[in-house]
Specification:
The chain is mainly beta and 121 residues long. The protein has one helix and eight strands. It has a single domain, classed as predicted glycosyltransferase like domains (Thrombin, subunit H). The longest helix is centred in the middle third of the chain and has 5 residues.
């Protein structure tokens, strides 16, 4: 059900629809301490400044991703994106939002990330 009859686009950069495998861990920004085990995700769309992930769950090895929303700059995600070829891209990102959608593929959660630095290859 849509609550608004119109959609306000807030994105600065054009997003490219994609379907890429990814993994991430959550760490504290000030100490570098790992807070979660590795979690699997799928990149649904990608831009120069961020991406949208599809997730199967919000609990990553005892760390719940809702904690990242309390202080995004304190809880960083180290994201490793695996394209279909052999290379991979590693980025650090902040979690901006979480959402739940009807997904027949078994990945009902969506996570919006903003990259905090340029990708490392």
């Amino acid at each position: 059900m849509k609550l608004w009859p119109f959609c306000v686009e807030r994105r600065f950069d054009q997003r490219r629809e994609t379907s890429l495998a990814a993994e991430f861990v959550v760490r504290e920004s000030f100490s570098g301490k790992l807070l979660s085990s590795s979690c699997s995700a799928q990149v649904l769309n990608l831009s120069r400044r961020g991406c949208c992930l599809a997730l199967g769950r919000l609990d990553c090895g005892g760390f719940h991703l809702h904690r990242c929303l309390e202080a995004p700059q304190d809880y960083l995600l180290d994201l490793n994106i695996n394209p279909h070829n052999d290379g991979s891209t590693q980025v650090t990102a902040e979690l901006l939002w979480l959402n739940r959608e009807q997904d027949p593929g078994g990945l009902p959660f969506r996570a919006g990330l903003a990259f905090s630095e340029q990708p490392r290859h």
